[in-house]
Amino acid sequence: MISHIAAISENNCIGKDGDLPWHIPKDLKHFKEKTQGKTVLMGRKTWESIPKKYRPLPNRKNIVLTTQQDYEAPQEVEVYDNIGDAIEAHRDGEIMVIGGESVYKDTMELAERLYITHVDQKVEGCDAYYPKIRGDQWQEIKREDHDDFSFVTYKRL
Question: What is the pTM of this model?
Answer without folding.
Answer: 0.96
